[in-house]
Amino acid sequence: MNDDSPLQSPLQSPPLATEPPKESPCPLPEATVETKGSGGMQLVWLIPLVALLIGAWLVFKTWSEAGPEIVLTFKSAEGIEAGKTRIKHKEVEVGLVETVTLSADFTHVRVHAALVKGTEPFLTSGAKFWVVRPRLSLRGISGLGTLVSGAHIEMEPGQGSPQRDFNGLETPPPVRVGAPGSRFLLEASSLGSLDVGAPVYYRDIPVGEVLGYELNKDKKGVTLPIFVQEPYNALIRDTTRFWETSGVDLVVDAGGFRLRSSSVSRLLMGGITFNTPDTLDSGQFAPENSRFTLFKSETAVAEGSYTQKLLFVLYFKGSVRGLSIGAPVEFRGIQVGKVTDIRLEYDFQETTFRIPVLVQIEPERVIEISSSGIKTLRGDSPHEFLQTLVKRGLRAQLKTGSYLTGQLFVELDLHQNAPLTLVGGTQTVHPELPTIPTSLDEITASVTRFLDKIQSLPLEGIGKELHETLKGTNRAANAPETLETIRAAHGALTEARNLLKNLNLQVEPMATGVKGVSGAATATLKQLEETLVKVDGLIGPKAPLHYGMVEAVRELAAAARSVRSLIDLLERKPESLLFGKEKEGVR
Description:
Blueprint: H1 46-65, E1 66-74, E2 86-89, E3 92-102, E4 109-116, E5 128-132, E6 135-137, E7 140-142, H2 146-149, E8 152-156, E9 165-167, E10 181-188, E11 199-202, E12 205-210, E13 214-215, E14 222-229, E15 241-245, E16 248-253, E17 256-261, H3 264-269, E18 271-275, E19 291-295, H4 298-304, E20 310-316, E21 328-331, E22 334-342, E23 345-347, E24 352-361, E25 367-370, E26 373-376, H5 382-391, E27 394-400, E28 408-414, H6 439-456, H7 459-477, H8 480-505, H9 507-512, H10 514-539, H11 544-572, H12 576-579
Parallel strand pairs: 1-9, 2-8, 10-19, 11-18, 15-19, 21-28
Antiparallel strand pairs: 1-4, 2-3, 3-4, 5-8, 6-7, 10-14, 11-12, 12-14, 13-14, 15-18, 16-17, 20-24, 21-22, 22-24, 23-24, 25-26, 27-28
Helix pairs in contact: 7-11, 8-10
């Protein structure tokens, strides 16, 4: 090959031959081209078309079978896991948690869940959701099954408008939907020892429980919804009374100490008891959601049944230590009211103090027996009735209810001889009932009067007179004349005794000298009489010395009798030192 010859590109065709081509022995076949119509479809396009249809059908099927999506709000996500935590109703799975996120302010969590189709009618404002986990409470142990299967969210359908966003409950509701029974509302001034789940009793049988509590609209009380099971809900009528009960009920008042104990559950949780009083009108059946008043105790139920209450003021001069607000007002041992207020007032004009005590009297506790039968004083005028009793001796007095606690109460009774004294006059807002001093005040006044009488006696003068009388008696007894008279009388008696002895020995010899002896005896007796007259002049009944002695002894005897009477009364009735002497004709 010549190096100087130009290079040929491999893509260039070879140079044309100058010689004519030689003819091939076998001619080549020619291809035949057939052209199909443009409107036909090739089979290869059927595969993606079928796949598209199947996908569309799956999408439609998934969309048509998908249930609603909801959002649950909880304080924490304890026990909740995305893609694992199930939503159940009566142990049937109705949904699955998809995602768990925090709220924008990081104060709670938001759980997004998908429910199965068909649950849309139950997603209303009344539906409830809570996490089921092991719980230990005063009502017992619940959720033990989740120790093996894991926690899940329980759903409880409700009624109301459609809703997709719910606030989850931190604790399970005490009563499930569909439980046989009725719900009622109780109105109370405060919650007290009650809590959610506190039992409701009827004759010490648990028949229901407290569902919750909330403030009233006016924020001055508490409303407690309760649930009563069947058939006990049929026992509740419009006259039924509810009151609080606890495990230990300790009352300290004018009646002393009263302690009542019950079960441990009542001690820990408290409770509510209801009862329907046995009256001629038992009332009508109470419909669901009826409202009732919740009283603090069974005693308060009886007090609440009296609607008519009258206010009176009492004025006491002595100490009212031991008298407190709420102390009972009794009439012969039966409570007819209570003390509502105690104050201390100062009178600038008289520069004295007085203690007004406001009492509340319930006249419905008293019934009047007439010829036509028994009727209450509700239709009459209670003020006129009490004023009539005041004219007949109705008085108020403080008495000790218990020496152990020192509590006082107000006793109303009829004292016919007691003076009618009104302290307040026309300036009092409420009608006034007259009062009398206490028994201790009466004893103190009696002792004071006795001591005043003793002090008013001229003891010094009586002592001087008695001293002078004794000195005069001593002088008269030791006077020579008295001694001479006594000696003469003694001699005369000796002579008379000797004379009688001689007369007994010599009756006949003495008969002759009877006249002489008689004359001597007459002279002796005359001398003795003169001596006795002299002594009588000194200490006889008509002598001044005798009169002074008699008066002194009489005064001392009267004082001794008074002291002896007081000692005898205290020996027989030592309690009179506190309660005073009983008056005749007063019962």
